[in-house]
Protein 1
Amino acid sequence: MRNICMTVSYDGTAYCGFQTQPNQNTIQDVLERALLSLTGETIKVTSSGRTDAGVHARCQVINYFTASKIPVERWCMALNTLLPADILVSGAKVVDDDFHSRRAAVQKTYRYTIRCGKHPDVFKRHLEFYHPTPLNTEEMRAGLEYLIGEHDFTSFCSIRSTKLSNIRTVYEARMECELLDPILQSYAIHIYLTGNGFLYNMVRIIAGTLIQVGEGKRSSESVKDILDARNRASAGPTAMSHGLTLWEVLYR
């Protein structure tokens, strides 16, 4: 048996998240069906983390055990011929038997994208949350600063979370703004959050709160007060899923 590790990129628009769910179309189901077709084996795929319905991944990491003798350098090409156009695997390699894509991950980065201005980008409509009016990005940046470090993120976590602890460390929180598109008269704002782990809906709740800061409904300083409150009701709404992408996962 070999433990194979791969990177998976996907447009999550048509899927009910990564993890297998009864009677639902998920990324894991599609990957496992492709592996069954390729190897004849019933293979369980492990991921670096679950993404919700409509959420995308630039760099999801998976691993699985197989008895197949297919050379590792042929796995990606073989699997990609069996996968739909909105899922792609890359970077296949053999890893130690004790490697676990979720437990071994030490750092993850998510990106949330908002498009502001007169018109949405029709080609990126599944990847960006459209906000028709300008946002105060300087205030949003200032609000992001309060998230850096180790905090109890209860206020930025869904009440449906089952985690025993809501303490997480955010290593970096930054924002990038694209230049104004002269045709669309709009621009994209990218919020990047890097940490040792994220709670259920944490990034989307942060994004929803920052949008309110950008709208002037909250001050940048209120982000600290929200953290201190440790109460989900203190934060803003959960931003739409299609603006979120799992950007990068790092290992030791």
Protein 2
Amino acid sequence: MKIGGTHYRTIWPESDGAVGIIDQTRLPHAFETLKLSTLEDAAHAIRVMQVRGAPLIGVTAAYGLALALRADASDAGLESAAKTLAATRPTAVNLAWALNEMLTFLRPIAPAERAAAAFAKAAQLADEDVETCRRIGAHGKAIIEDIAKKKDGPVNVLTHCNAGWIACVDWGTALSPIYQAHDAGIPVHVWVDETRPRNQGAALTAFELGAHGVPHTVIADNAGGHLMQHGDVDLCIVGCDRLTAAGDAANKIGTYLKALAAKDNGVPFYFALPLSTIDWTLFDGVRDIPIEERDARELTHMTGRTDGGDIVTVQVTAPGSAGANPAFDVTPARLITGIITERGVSPASREGLAATYPEYARTAA
């Protein structure tokens, strides 16, 4: 995607051997890039959400492993680096998936050759993510196009958090169908949930939709149900951080409430995700998906730009009040209309996912 007329991916190899990223903690007020040069740099970037979004976390971990092998390519070094990266974010399964892909590939390779091989493999995973997201977008675009044929005016899509190109290597998952519909001339408008407490919708989704010229409106997190009641939402598309083999979906906190409102109002509710987001070992998402508890300061404080142009952080809660900050919730499969994948739209069920990915479902418990 383009920023100011320049094409960017969210992660790329630098000429000096480092890995470049966009610092997402600075958006939308400043567009800045960073260089990752060590394992510690990569782990820090994931942990503090300089990179975020399940697919991008996975690719960053892959590059982080490659950076680590420059310092220690021994068997012990390989396993230790993977353990360090795996501990950074517990909910997004793409992290574990990418590390497993890298470990399976690298373990048989001689230590002297591992670093170069790891960089090549990480680049391959990045390229594959771009193509996967493009294909997710093509399948999701067909859903938007079908709705557009049946109504006057734009198709109104509600989304939660950020699952656009900033959350992936390029294109995105939930936003890829929107970009492809917009580029094809299909009238589309996006309701952008602000997504408290980190405001990924207001900050990141609005930023990238605006950069691409897609009509959109930022709304308070609690406004979605009201809009659905009044017929102002045609469908919801959100991303996903972990999908069980039975179709339960973990996504940014607040997604479950939107799915309940959509069900009550007959609004289709889709999750868009790649194969790497599916956890074939889990079947009960509410019980078994680990939910990351983040620093309460994300809830009690907010960062923004003053009218004078300064970027400041202020406290928004009553002094002395405790804060609880679960980062994700789980939407049960019964509330999900379908799963938009790179292979097509799948029912949110064990049978539906097994039919879409038979070679992986056979290995599920």
Protein 3
Amino acid sequence: MKKYLLEVCVDSVESAQAAIKGGADRLELCGNLVIGGTTPEQALFEKVRELTDIRIRVLIRPRYGDFLYTQDEFDIIARSVELYRRLGADGVVTGCLLPDGSLDAERMKRLREQAGSMDMTLHRAFDMCRDPHSALEKAKDLGIQTILTSGQKNSCLEGRELIEELVRESGGKVDIMAGGGVDAGVIRQMISTTDVTSYHMSGKITLDSGMIYRNPEVSMGAPAAAGGIGEYEIFRTSREKVRAAKETLEKAGKEI
């Protein structure tokens, strides 16, 4: 029986609970998933930790955008890794690049040391790097446990050829976790064409706010009509989407 893992990325207590009920094996806890995720608030981590003993890896990303950080930004990243180590997170999810597109091995080494006994995931900064094969070798040397990747494409299905290469090259030393557009259907296709055993999904759906009164004259960000996100759209993880993905992995595991 083959062992598969399903990690669900969440940015609220409600989404964490839905992911757990859906059968997630592990959570990646973030803030602001609507912009790709940032470091979550300490209070959010503490609340989720109170509710469950599921493994939690925490995203450490100080801002939206690229992965080339100033010294001040990197200091914040390092402090956040230390904070979540003290708070009892099971792992951290982070990544730093150099201007030439290579992995910033020096800074990643410092973060790996800062993490101590926690696991570390190299997040999709990996997908923005110049040479994924070189980055994989550096990750091995640094003792990074997991690389989250879409195969340097917008979805893991598009990038599955590279992902399969990375699985082979990892030699079991780094877990290559497929992310980007993952759902039950994508998992079925990935299982049939790759040896990937770990999958990362958000399972997001959009809910309408419970607000009855809505002031049409005020927008707190870019208005929906201008391509932004409205104040009255709530993003949540779908228990049903997570459950469908988990059942697909369980079925695949029994068939092998």
Protein 4
Amino acid sequence: MGCFTFVKVMMVVFNLLIFLGGLGLLSMGIWASVDGGSFLQNLATFSAQALHFVNLGVFCIVVGVLLVLLGLLGFCAAHRESKCLLLMFFSIVLIIFIAEVAVGVVALAYSSFAEGILRAWATPALKEQYGNDPVVTKIWNTTMRELKCCGFNNCTDFVDSRYARDNDGNLPPDCCLGNSTVCSPQNAQKDGVEGCFEELLELLKMNGSIVGGVVAGIVVLEIAAMVVSIYLYCHLDNRDPMKH
């Protein structure tokens, strides 16, 4: 097997992986949109208006479809040995790679401010919208029940909230360990149920290595796909001089 043939096979393999990855993300997006009680919904807890859970599922579906189409494009480019398709594939992957690097730089730059901004924004929204907005109430109830937590910081988030005013000063049942129908602020303080932010943070830290490994694998795959595609593009003329 010559070098050109080997690189062509690798191009097919890389795009098969991109295609399968797109199918996996597409499946996850469909599952996320259908399964309203899944953990992915908890990631959308802290947005009453912008990041509803269904949008997260739609985002996964859109990205999955794009990856499937990108995999098919790369496969066709390698199979047909088309310089036009190879250049198009390389350009798309390069744009995606640059966008990922930009997002990573911005995330690192603002990560230190994210917790403070989230705390300053989420707590007032929780005080006014929980118990009043059905969507926000359902999402918070699911989060507190599954993670066994209370509020964003702790049970004090519900003190003097709209929910407390409408329920004779009582807090949501999940703020007390017994999950009794009536949960007074005194019992909630005594039980000391932790806030959901800390619980989510711990859960994300536990899965951080998996997420980091997946991201690193995607980056390596993109770099390898770009190298292989540009190699095929540059060596097509040398391989078949009779075409000119």
